[in-house]
Amino acid sequence: MRSPIRLLLGLVPLFLIAAGPHIDLPGSVESEPVQNAGPRVMTVYEWMAILRAPATPAGFQAPAGPRVGWPLQGVLTQPYGCTGFELERPAASCPSGFHTGIDIARPQGTPIRAAAAGFAYPFTDDQRYGNHVIIQQQGGLSTVYGHMIRFGVSWGQQVRAGDLIGWVGSTGNSTGPHLHFEVRYGGTPYDPMQYLDGSPADPYPLPEGWPGSPPDDGLGRR
Ligand SMILES: [Zn+2]
Fold first, then answer.
1. Under a CB-based contact definition with an 8 Å cutoff, are residues 98 and 83 in contact?
2. Confidence of residue 192 (pLDDT cuts 50, 70, 90)
3. Parallel, antiparallel, or unpaired for β 81-82 and 178-185?
4. How many Å lie between the centroid of ligand 1 and the Cα of residue 7?
5. Which CATH architecture does the domain made up of 4-197 adopt?
6. How far, in Å, from the CA of 8 to the mean position of ligand 1?
7. Residues 128 and 173 sit within 8 Å (Cβ to Cβ)
8. pTM of the predicted protein model
9. Domain boundaries, the chain
10. Burial level of 5, CB count in 10 A (0-12/13-18/19+)?
11. Whole-angstrom Cα distance, residue 203 to residue 42?
Protein backbone atom coordinates (compact mmCIF):
# COMPACT_ATOMS: atom_id res chain seq x y z
CA MET A 1 0.00 0.00 0.00
CA ARG A 2 1.60 3.28 -1.07
CA SER A 3 0.94 6.42 0.91
CA PRO A 4 -0.31 9.60 -0.82
CA ILE A 5 2.99 11.31 0.06
CA ARG A 6 5.00 8.63 -1.71
CA LEU A 7 2.75 8.86 -4.74
CA LEU A 8 3.22 12.63 -4.86
CA LEU A 9 7.00 12.28 -4.56
CA GLY A 10 6.94 9.84 -7.42
CA LEU A 11 5.30 12.45 -9.62
CA VAL A 12 7.92 15.16 -8.97
CA PRO A 13 10.00 14.36 -12.09
CA LEU A 14 6.90 14.59 -14.26
CA PHE A 15 6.19 18.06 -12.88
CA LEU A 16 9.80 19.07 -13.57
CA ILE A 17 9.57 17.89 -17.17
CA ALA A 18 6.18 19.51 -17.66
CA ALA A 19 7.48 22.83 -16.30
CA GLY A 20 10.42 22.95 -18.70
CA PRO A 21 10.37 24.99 -21.91
CA HIS A 22 9.09 23.23 -24.99
CA ILE A 23 11.84 22.97 -27.60
CA ASP A 24 11.57 21.53 -31.07
CA LEU A 25 14.58 19.47 -31.96
CA PRO A 26 15.66 19.46 -35.59
CA GLY A 27 17.09 16.18 -36.75
CA SER A 28 16.22 14.26 -33.64
CA VAL A 29 13.51 11.95 -34.88
CA GLU A 30 15.45 8.71 -34.48
CA SER A 31 13.68 7.63 -31.33
CA GLU A 32 11.39 9.05 -28.70
CA PRO A 33 13.04 9.94 -25.39
CA VAL A 34 12.03 7.59 -22.60
CA GLN A 35 9.67 9.34 -20.20
CA ASN A 36 9.04 6.71 -17.56
CA ALA A 37 11.79 7.87 -15.18
CA GLY A 38 12.84 11.47 -14.82
CA PRO A 39 16.34 12.83 -14.40
CA ARG A 40 17.77 13.16 -10.94
CA VAL A 41 18.36 16.70 -9.68
CA MET A 42 21.70 17.00 -7.90
CA THR A 43 24.19 19.61 -6.82
CA VAL A 44 27.50 19.92 -8.60
CA TYR A 45 29.80 16.95 -7.94
CA GLU A 46 27.34 15.31 -5.56
CA TRP A 47 27.00 12.33 -7.85
CA MET A 48 30.72 11.67 -7.82
CA ALA A 49 30.52 10.53 -4.22
CA ILE A 50 27.36 8.45 -4.39
CA LEU A 51 27.20 6.91 -7.83
CA ARG A 52 28.95 3.58 -8.03
CA ALA A 53 29.71 1.39 -10.99
CA PRO A 54 27.54 -1.66 -11.60
CA ALA A 55 29.02 -4.84 -10.23
CA THR A 56 32.00 -6.00 -12.26
CA PRO A 57 32.15 -9.78 -12.73
CA ALA A 58 35.04 -11.54 -11.03
CA GLY A 59 37.91 -12.01 -13.44
CA PHE A 60 36.76 -9.18 -15.68
CA GLN A 61 39.47 -8.16 -18.14
CA ALA A 62 39.24 -4.95 -20.15
CA PRO A 63 39.41 -5.81 -23.86
CA ALA A 64 42.41 -4.73 -25.92
CA GLY A 65 41.98 -1.68 -28.11
CA PRO A 66 39.95 1.48 -27.47
CA ARG A 67 37.64 1.11 -24.50
CA VAL A 68 35.59 4.15 -25.44
CA GLY A 69 34.28 5.31 -28.84
CA TRP A 70 33.46 8.80 -30.08
CA PRO A 71 29.98 9.85 -28.92
CA LEU A 72 29.65 12.06 -32.02
CA GLN A 73 31.85 13.59 -34.69
CA GLY A 74 32.51 17.31 -34.43
CA VAL A 75 34.99 20.10 -33.87
CA LEU A 76 37.14 19.68 -30.76
CA THR A 77 36.93 23.16 -29.25
CA GLN A 78 38.63 22.60 -25.90
CA PRO A 79 40.97 19.81 -24.77
CA TYR A 80 41.29 18.20 -21.35
CA GLY A 81 43.52 19.90 -18.78
CA CYS A 82 44.49 23.37 -17.62
CA THR A 83 42.55 26.12 -19.28
CA GLY A 84 42.17 29.86 -19.02
CA PHE A 85 38.48 29.51 -19.67
CA GLU A 86 36.86 31.28 -16.76
CA LEU A 87 33.82 28.99 -16.61
CA GLU A 88 35.85 26.00 -15.51
CA ARG A 89 36.37 25.07 -11.89
CA PRO A 90 39.86 25.93 -10.61
CA ALA A 91 42.11 23.21 -9.17
CA ALA A 92 45.18 23.46 -6.97
CA SER A 93 47.53 22.73 -9.87
CA CYS A 94 45.52 24.86 -12.31
CA PRO A 95 44.44 28.11 -10.63
CA SER A 96 43.07 29.43 -13.92
CA GLY A 97 40.71 26.45 -14.20
CA PHE A 98 40.82 22.75 -15.00
CA HIS A 99 38.80 21.24 -17.81
CA THR A 100 37.76 17.74 -16.79
CA GLY A 101 36.80 16.58 -20.29
CA ILE A 102 36.83 17.52 -23.95
CA ASP A 103 34.37 19.81 -25.71
CA ILE A 104 32.98 18.84 -29.11
CA ALA A 105 30.96 21.54 -30.88
CA ARG A 106 27.89 20.52 -32.89
CA PRO A 107 24.54 22.19 -33.61
CA GLN A 108 21.74 21.83 -31.09
CA GLY A 109 19.77 18.64 -31.63
CA THR A 110 22.70 16.56 -32.94
CA PRO A 111 22.32 12.97 -31.68
CA ILE A 112 24.76 11.83 -28.96
CA ARG A 113 25.64 8.14 -28.81
CA ALA A 114 26.89 5.98 -25.97
CA ALA A 115 30.69 5.75 -26.08
CA ALA A 116 30.57 2.33 -24.42
CA ALA A 117 28.10 -0.22 -23.10
CA GLY A 118 26.81 0.20 -19.56
CA PHE A 119 24.03 1.60 -17.41
CA ALA A 120 22.88 5.17 -18.17
CA TYR A 121 21.81 7.70 -15.53
CA PRO A 122 20.38 11.14 -16.43
CA PHE A 123 21.02 14.13 -14.15
CA THR A 124 20.20 17.81 -14.16
CA ASP A 125 22.66 20.40 -12.91
CA ASP A 126 21.96 24.04 -13.75
CA GLN A 127 25.26 25.24 -12.33
CA ARG A 128 27.66 23.32 -14.49
CA TYR A 129 26.89 20.20 -16.54
CA GLY A 130 23.30 21.05 -17.40
CA ASN A 131 21.31 18.03 -18.51
CA HIS A 132 23.91 15.29 -18.45
CA VAL A 133 24.07 11.53 -18.67
CA ILE A 134 26.56 9.26 -16.92
CA ILE A 135 27.14 5.78 -18.31
CA GLN A 136 28.69 3.34 -15.84
CA GLN A 137 30.68 0.62 -17.57
CA GLN A 138 32.17 -2.55 -16.19
CA GLY A 139 35.64 -2.28 -14.70
CA GLY A 140 35.19 1.07 -12.95
CA LEU A 141 35.08 3.26 -16.06
CA SER A 142 32.31 5.76 -16.65
CA THR A 143 31.60 8.32 -19.37
CA VAL A 144 29.85 11.67 -18.91
CA TYR A 145 27.89 13.65 -21.52
CA GLY A 146 27.12 17.27 -20.59
CA HIS A 147 24.90 20.18 -21.71
CA MET A 148 22.23 18.07 -23.46
CA ILE A 149 19.07 19.77 -24.67
CA ARG A 150 17.13 16.57 -24.02
CA PHE A 151 17.71 13.07 -22.62
CA GLY A 152 17.20 9.89 -24.60
CA VAL A 153 17.57 7.50 -21.65
CA SER A 154 15.85 6.84 -18.36
CA TRP A 155 17.44 6.15 -14.97
CA GLY A 156 19.40 2.92 -14.97
CA GLN A 157 18.67 2.09 -18.60
CA GLN A 158 21.09 -0.42 -20.07
CA VAL A 159 22.73 0.82 -23.27
CA ARG A 160 25.07 -0.60 -25.88
CA ALA A 161 27.91 1.33 -27.50
CA GLY A 162 26.44 3.52 -30.21
CA ASP A 163 22.94 3.75 -28.74
CA LEU A 164 21.27 7.15 -28.88
CA ILE A 165 21.33 8.67 -25.38
CA GLY A 166 20.43 12.34 -25.94
CA TRP A 167 20.84 15.46 -28.08
CA VAL A 168 23.39 18.28 -28.12
CA GLY A 169 22.35 21.45 -26.32
CA SER A 170 23.72 24.29 -24.25
CA THR A 171 22.15 23.67 -20.83
CA GLY A 172 24.05 24.42 -17.63
CA ASN A 173 27.24 26.48 -17.67
CA SER A 174 27.74 26.68 -21.43
CA THR A 175 28.23 29.43 -23.99
CA GLY A 176 26.91 27.54 -27.01
CA PRO A 177 25.75 24.14 -28.22
CA HIS A 178 28.42 21.49 -27.63
CA LEU A 179 29.00 18.15 -25.97
CA HIS A 180 31.20 18.11 -22.87
CA PHE A 181 32.57 14.55 -22.76
CA GLU A 182 34.40 12.95 -19.86
CA VAL A 183 35.96 9.60 -19.10
CA ARG A 184 36.24 8.73 -15.41
CA TYR A 185 37.94 5.86 -13.64
CA GLY A 186 36.75 5.21 -10.11
CA GLY A 187 34.94 8.56 -10.31
CA THR A 188 38.06 10.57 -11.19
CA PRO A 189 38.28 12.25 -14.62
CA TYR A 190 41.11 11.33 -17.02
CA ASP A 191 41.98 12.61 -20.48
CA PRO A 192 39.35 11.06 -22.77
CA MET A 193 41.77 11.10 -25.71
CA GLN A 194 43.88 8.28 -24.32
CA TYR A 195 40.79 6.09 -23.96
CA LEU A 196 39.61 7.03 -27.45
CA ASP A 197 43.03 6.35 -28.95
CA GLY A 198 43.93 3.11 -27.24
CA SER A 199 43.70 1.07 -24.08
CA PRO A 200 45.59 2.74 -21.24
CA ALA A 201 46.33 0.83 -18.06
CA ASP A 202 43.94 1.55 -15.22
CA PRO A 203 45.58 4.20 -13.02
CA TYR A 204 44.95 2.60 -9.64
CA PRO A 205 43.01 -0.18 -7.93
CA LEU A 206 39.39 0.74 -7.43
CA PRO A 207 38.48 2.19 -4.03
CA GLU A 208 37.30 -0.01 -1.19
CA GLY A 209 33.70 -1.01 -1.70
CA TRP A 210 33.81 -0.48 -5.46
CA PRO A 211 31.94 -1.63 -7.45
CA GLY A 212 28.55 -1.08 -5.99
CA SER A 213 25.38 0.20 -7.53
CA PRO A 214 23.47 3.49 -7.40
CA PRO A 215 21.73 3.61 -4.00
CA ASP A 216 18.40 4.58 -5.54
CA ASP A 217 16.84 6.69 -8.26
CA GLY A 218 16.69 9.84 -6.16
CA LEU A 219 13.20 9.03 -4.98
CA GLY A 220 14.10 6.32 -2.49
CA ARG A 221 13.28 3.52 -4.89
CA ARG A 222 15.59 0.72 -5.89
ZN1 LIG B 1 33.70 21.14 -21.32
1. yes
2. very high
3. unpaired
4. 37
5. Distorted Sandwich (2.70)
6. 36
7. yes
8. 0.73
9. 4-197
10. exposed
11. 28
